[in-house]
Amino acid sequence: MKLGYMTNAFGPLVGEGGGVTSIKDIRYLTLCDDEAVLKKITNTGFRYIEVLEGNLTKYGSDIQVLKDMLARYGAGMMSVCVGANFIYPDALEDEMFHMETVAALAEQVGVSYVAFCGGAIRGRGVQTGDYALLAKGLKEAEKVFAAHGIEASYHPHLGSMAEKPEQIDRLFSVSDIKICPDLAHLAAGGGDPLEIVKKYYDRISFVHLKDLDENGFAPLGTGHVDVEGVLRFLKEKGYAGDYLVEADGFAGDPEEACRTSYRFLQGKLI
């Protein structure tokens, strides 16, 4: 079992500027000192990280820099999160160009998983056929990463076409992609994380552990998500997969949030 921590809690989330006018260049990016963040995460006890795609592709001209950085801290990059619209056929070619860029670099640093976020909501709202278009786009992206030995999943996410439980169900009724359940996003979207994990257990790729309080996403054990209930269920089912912890958007000290979550998990995963 791998246990990782997402670096996106250590800086603001932005989209790289080139994506405003060139779809192939759009990507998520956490504004942070990658090495300083890696040091803090590994000092806490986590041995793996997940990054947003921009924090991987920024090393595209010399991936050895990133590989050496990971080696210095005895760390691995478990997963990467990639966003796209997916539903616009004319844009899909360039979105897949971007996926290939990310996948090729991810393979070089030993990434096991990619979590896809997205499914654009049109100005006039979700239209008939959009879930089929999303499913088709996800299938194409899944193929790109599979060619590089990386397992793909969809991450139901606030602000996407699969935010609410009924939307998640609608997508997964037309797509066979695996799921990366994020407990706090599921709760914030109006769902019961435990029930959704139970419903889609056979399709789980890996799990995002995150808590939620009245102010937003929070360190594990400090919010109202039944994280322990989900972990008990997964243990009872014999889940042998991997976990990624997140606390993005937390208003407090991100390093303390990392330590709080790590302490919460002690004795609960084995």
Walk me through this protein's architecture.
This protein is 40% helix and 18% strand. It is α/β, with parallel strands linked by helices. The protein has one domain: TIM Barrel. The strands form three sheets. Strands 8-7-6-5-4-1-12-9 form an eight-stranded parallel beta sheet. A two-stranded antiparallel ribbon has the order 2-3. Helix 4 runs parallel beside helix 5 and helix 5 crosses helix 6. It is globular and about 45 Å long. The model has no long low-confidence stretch (mean pLDDT 97).
Residue windows where pLDDT falls under 50 for at least 5 positions: none
Count of domains: 1
Oligomer: single chain
End-to-end Cα distance: 9 Å
SSE arrangement, N to C: EEEHEHHEHEHEHEHHEEEHEH
Q: Strands of the largest sheet, in order across it?
A: 8-7-6-5-4-1-12-9
Question: Under CATH, the topology is which?
Answer: TIM Barrel
Number of strands: 12
Per CATH, which architecture? Alpha-Beta Barrel
Question: How many DSSP helices?
Answer: 10
For the sheet with most strands, the description reads: 8 strands, parallel
> Over the alpha carbons, how many angstroms does the gyration radius reach?
17 Å
SS class? alpha/beta
Molecular shape: globular
Superfamily at the CATH H level?
Answer: Divalent-metal-dependent TIM barrel enzymes
